[in-house]
Amino acid sequence: MRRNEREFALKILFACEFSDESWETHKNLFSPKDLKHETDFSKNIISYYLTHKEKVDENLIKHIKNWDYTRVAIIDKILLRISVIEFLYFPEIPPEATINEALEMAKKYSTPQSSNFINGVLDSVFKEMKESLKDIKTGRGKISKILN
Q: Is the pTM of this model over 0.70?
């Protein structure tokens, strides 16, 4: 299930925020049950995240109004970054699914206000990126006519 794989990536990336060690090193903290969610999908999220984090942050900063990005909760930043990574590098995933997954994980792992904050930011990011994503998203990930 993709949610479990996303949660695995979220946990690994959270650990990476507090250490300069490679993400593989942090796997030692996980139980075998958690490690079964280390799939190509979760590894790709982690890889794209670590490679493009600064570029994604530049994009996100433009969409966060009336708030200092350095004050955004770490979990919320990670969820926002993962979502933008999915928008850009996972053409088969519908943007609506990406946003929904981020909101559900925010409800589980972050503050009560986080899902509203994340929804607003991702809505803004998606609206800006929608035209360019039409050429990227394929199959089930195609941008729906409702959003056009």
A: yes
What's the pLDDT score for residue 133? 65
Residue 105: partners with Cβ closer than 8 Å, 6 or more residues away:
3, 6, 7, 10, 79
* Average pLDDT over every residue of 40-65: 94
In one-letter notation, the amino acid at residue 21 is E
Predicted confidence (pLDDT) at residue 3 exceeds the cutoff of 90: yes
In Å, how far from its chain's centre is CA 62?
17
Token readout for 77 is 């930043």
Query: Judging by beta carbons within 10 Å of its beta carbon (0-12, 13-18, 19+), is residue 62 exposed, middle or buried?
Result: exposed
Tokens 């979990």, located at residue: 75
Rounded Cα distance, 148 and 12, in Å: 35
- Angstrom CA distances, 56 to 27, 70, 86, 87, 129, stand at 24, 14, 11, 11, 12
Q: How far apart are CA 31 and CA 11, in angstroms?
A: 12
Average pLDDT, the chain: 86
- pLDDT range class, residue 45, cuts 50, 70, 90: very high
Phi-psi region of 93 (alpha: psi -120 to 50; beta: other; left: phi over 0): beta
Calculated CA dihedral for residues 55, 1, 7, 137, nearest 10 degrees: 10
